[in-house]
Amino acid sequence: MSINKAQHALLKGNLQLTDLITRQILMQEPEHPQALQVRKALVAAVGQPQWHADDQHFLLIKAWGFGFWSDLDHVLGSLLLAELTGRTPVVHWGRNSLFRDPDTPNAFEHYFQPVSSTTLANLMAPGTSYYPPKWNAGNLHVEELDKWSGPGSRMTGLYFLRRPEHVVVSDFHIKVNDLMPWIPEGSEWHGMSRQAIYRRLVSRYIRLQPARQQAIDAVWQRLFEGHQWLAVHVRGTDKALELTQLSEVNRAYHRSIDRILSVNPDLKIFLLTDSTETVSEFQGLWGDRITCLDALRGQGLQGVHLSGHPGLLMGEQVLTDAFLAARCDMFLGNGASNVSTGIRHLKDWPAGSFFLLGADFLDQLDTSLHDW
Question: How far apart are CA 232 and CA 229, in angstroms?
């Protein structure tokens, strides 16, 4: 990425791309004069977060509309935004969520307890102001409204930090890593590592519905209790279209698992995967040491969540897998997967118990969504 592109992005009002490019440049050359100049203009454009010390300002967090843990990552990034601006968060996974059934009003609350007592209906009171301007009291329930193009599209957390409106609406992916440079001194979040921020957000906001917790507890007692476990998450199917080196990463699991088992020979393996081929492969290699739940899986390059299965069933299965994995003694996963990186944040893993193959992509400065 070039400084010219950063300058052009700033002129267009593309704050997120400007931020990511200048951060990349300054990581390589901290005293780059043009990058510092562009960065100074960006800081002036974004400003310091405006704190709303009342109960009249809200952040509506819509479904990102992709994989379950990608959706949840968007929620966590948006919750950090709410924390930085003093807004009351409201999470509403509507019709664009892949993990709902047609009669599910808010899929998020099928899995998790509400993050606040405010609901979507509370945000439609007369006299309420909204941002971006594409939103109003009559269309808050609409999904995919000019999300990718048009006025108010592709808006990340930087655009919302100092908005005065009563309700701001987050419908485009917000990453914790993208907000971290904008955390002001004096904030409880200032100076924290990315992993620590995620862990605190999960601890503060992500609480399973009692029915989901009871179902997970029952599976644990039936299949897992009394043993030591290595949870292994392996992606297949459509992930190969996104990650060109997926087959190489997946082959590396064999060596890593054997090394872990050589030190911990009593471990059983809990396999989480979307691929029927992976189940057969692992059972052939490690036999009855392998346990995996009876779940929807795919073959070839067809993603399970894009195959027309009942949405709530898919969501319940991926949720159960992840929360069971977080109760295991050790974990091995794919650093390019939202599922693997999300499981890291579900508990405080002891040192030497959590491993990713490849870099954790949540730590990367990804311009792909913002290059417009």
Answer: 9
- Tokens found for residue 350: 């002891």
User: Which strand ranges, in their side-by-side order, compose the sheet holding 229-234?
Assistant: 290-291, 268-273, 229-234, 330-334, 354-357
d(CA 293, CA 318): 10
pLDDT at 275: 84
Tell me the CB-side half-sphere exposure of residue 176, using CA atoms within 13 A.
27
pLDDT at site 221: 98
Q: Give the pLDDT band (50/70/90) at residue 304.
A: low
* Residue whose C-alpha is closest to residue 70's, from 322, 288, 251, 268: 322
Spatial distance between the Cα atoms of 11 and 9, rounded to a whole number of angstroms:
5
β 354-357/229-234 pair status: unpaired
Confidence band of 241 (pLDDT split at 50, 70, 90) = very low
Structure tokens at 196: 């620590």
**What CA–CA distance (Å, rounded) separates 113 from 107?**
11
CA distance 170 to 76: 12
The dihedrals phi and psi of 300, each to the nearest 5 degrees, come to: 65, -135
Instruction: Give the global pTM.
Output: 0.94
Taking only the tens place, the pLDDT of each residue in 321-360 is 999 999 999 999 999 999 999 999 999 999 999 999 999 9
Q: Hey, how many other C-beta atoms are within 10 angstroms of the C-beta on 66?
A: 18
